[in-house]
Amino acid sequence: MSVFTNQVGYYTNSVKIATVKDVSACTLFRNDKIVKEFNGFELKYDENSGDNISVVDFSEIKEPGIYYFTDNLGNKSCSFTISDNPYDKLFTDIQKMFYFQRCGMELEEKYAGIYSHKACHTAKVTLLKDPSVSCDCLGGWHDAGDYGRYVSAGAVAVAHLLYAYDLCKDKFNVSLNIPESGNGMPDILNEVAYELKFLLCMQRNDGAMYHKCTSMYHTGFVMPEDDGLPFFITPVTSVSTGDACGVFAQAAAIYKKYDEEFSKTLKEAAIKSFEWLLANPLYIFENPKECYTGTYEDPCDSDERLYAYTQIYLLTGDERCLGLIRNILEYKINTTALGWSDVGGFTSLAVLTAGPEVFPDDLTARLRQQWLDEADRLVNVSTGNSYGIACHPYNFNWGSNMGVLLNGMVLCFAHHLTGLDKYINAAIAQFDYILGRNAMDVSYVTGHGERAFRNPHNRPTVADNIDDPIPGFVSGGPNRFPCDPDAKKIIPEGTAPMKCFADVIGSYSTNEITIYWNSPLVFLLAYIKSVFEK
Ligand code: 9MR
Ligand code: ZN
């Protein structure tokens, strides 16, 4: 294949770009009739993919329909739609993913369809090496293809979803067909509440947060209810406490309108974590020797504290916070980072949304400038290569799709701040890459796109014996250092970074799924919808 498009489609009124590789001409068809021919491509070597590529800009084509390209070598691209609402099903499925990750309850057929299964992980858990401390760690979302639940990872996914909701409320007016649907609260908040309740269970009496709740090693490819391994909670960290404090405070404000009681609980939890952070130094996580599940190790808690202090300030107006925020900003903090280890960008999102009425002028001005500088850098990188992503070869690490999506979030928010087309167009390019405009010619979202990946490293996907994976899962994507045996077998040494991907179940280092790889896509698509579907 040599013409790569967003395999789901494009808006009638948005930019529409495809990438061509190794060809001199291509033809666009609608409903099997020729629409337009393109030629004269100036192919350029692309270091991310090792491909010689150029772009086809077909933004002028606005007629709704089913389209595809053919090239001068006789290849046909995937089919895609042009329409006024091409992403509705995608938007629902990527949110419903969180329901499918729910732990501790039965997924009933009326909500989960053929993917229904019994309740899992319902036993009480104890603190590792101290069985006198036990907790009903019920609920929450399985982190990923494994059944662990990790506070930082969960909190970061929640933060992405809450920021998305806050920015694009009217786009979340969709039913996800989950047990709480119809209770008067938007379903995305119903879903997020499920994780927040788990996070509340992970809080120690003094406000500190246990780092994770997992077994000592990952179970085999069994359904979650058949996972017979005992689960433990591991000691508290300041990193998890900062993350959770931030989301508790942020959520307390958002849920107030819908559930006073829950909002109050969240506020109390946030304040307890805040007081603990004030009284305690850095506590980082190290896996105990005999434990082989994920670590989410993060040697620095300044950015998590920054997020916490920002949200506590917004919630309570506690004057101590401003000084604390300023102190942290004295150090080299990345104020546009939105991933599981660096969350400085959460402060910028909050400060720049609240604006100078709430935060001092100099602070907002500085964070705004840093945000737009980063967005401009991303625009430059993204327009400098024909796959349109704001990545360099060294960015293709484990979960590289998260990097692409987080860049998309930065660009969307820059567009929100300025209204400038260059930002939304670059954001769309990140989105298009995820959905097929990439060197693998693959859509990294299950069930969406003619060549969507099909074999996520996800235990239920194997154990349920159902052919099709659950739709709406985002793959971690290419990893230039694949480290699982399957990927190592399949991906030859020296493969270009963008092609270090293997759509096989075993490949946890290139093809796993996680909650915090879906959540930035929800943000990105919610924002794109809010711009193009008025
Ligand atoms: O997403 C994480 C990635 O950035 C790390 O490089 C990788 C190795 O430490 O771990 C990833 O997180 C995994 C977690 O530890 C356990 N659940 C599955 C996660 C996704 O692979
Ligand atoms: Zn479970």
Protein topology:
Blueprint (H helix, E strand, L loop, with lengths): L2 E2 L4 E3 L5 E5 L3 E6 L2 E7 L4 E2 L6 E6 L7 E7 L8 E4 L4 H13 L8 H4 L12 E3 L2 E6 L13 E2 H17 L19 H15 L7 E2 L1 E3 L17 E2 L2 E2 H18 L4 H20 L22 H15 L3 H10 L14 H11 L6 H23 L16 H19 L2 H14 L24 H5 L21 H6 L17 H4 L3 H18 L2
Parallel strand pairs: 2-9, 10-15
Antiparallel strand pairs: 1-3, 3-7, 4-5, 4-8, 6-7, 8-9, 10-11, 12-14, 13-16, 14-15
Helix pairs in contact: 1-16, 3-4, 3-5, 3-16, 5-6, 5-7, 6-7, 7-8, 7-9, 9-10, 10-11, 10-12, 11-12, 11-16, 12-16
The protein binds ligand 9MR and zinc ion.
Zinc ion binds next to loops.
Describe the structure.
It is built from 16 helices and 16 strands. The model has no long low-confidence stretch (mean pLDDT 97). It is α+β, with helices and mostly antiparallel strands and 534 residues long. Strand 6 and strand 7 form a beta hairpin. The strands form 4 sheets. It has a 5-stranded mixed sheet, with no helix packed on it.
Q: What Rg do the Cα atoms give?
A: 23 Å
Main beta-sheet annotation: 5 strands, mixed
Overall SS class: alpha+beta
- From the N-terminal CA to the C-terminal CA, the straight-line distance is 35 Å
Uncertain spans? none
Quote the average pLDDT.
97
Molecular shape:
globular
Total beta strands? 16
Helical run tally: 16
What percent of residues adopt helix (DSSP H or I)? 25-40%
Give the spatial strand order of the biggest sheet: 2-9-8-4-5
* β-strand amount: 5-15%
Bound molecules: ligand 9MR, zinc ion
